[in-house]
Amino acid sequence: MLHQVLQAFETATGPVSLDELSRELGIERGALEGMIAFWVRKGRLQDSAGPGCGGSCGSCGAAPGGCAFQHAGPRTITLLERGTNAPESG
Fold first, then answer.
1. What is the rounded distance in angstroms from the CA atom of residue 48 to the CA atom of residue 40?
2. What pTM does this model have?
């Protein structure tokens, strides 16, 4: 099932609705979120809802509660090319 989730992102030609994907795969939304988190940890997907903006705006020190801009836009999950982020480990 984990590979089906990754394959859905690899073959997508546009935005992927997580609710729609969970229905298509026949799994609960919470389970899908966990599978996405697995692929984020493996460096195959990047989730905008997670940490790691890179501090490019320079305002991280100004906001005591964290990044003020991190949750301003829609959540996006992006497929990363192999070797782009963290190396895969077994």
1. 10
2. 0.67
Give the model confidence (pLDDT) of 20-32 as tens digits. Answer: 999 999 999 999 9
* Nearest CA among 27, 16, 2 for reference residue 78: 16
> How many other CB atoms are found less than 10 A from the CB of residue 36?
22
Per-residue pLDDT reduced to its tens digit, 29-67? 999 999 999 999 999 999 887 655 555 565 555 445 556
- Complete domains list, the chain, with CATH: 2-79 (1.10.10)
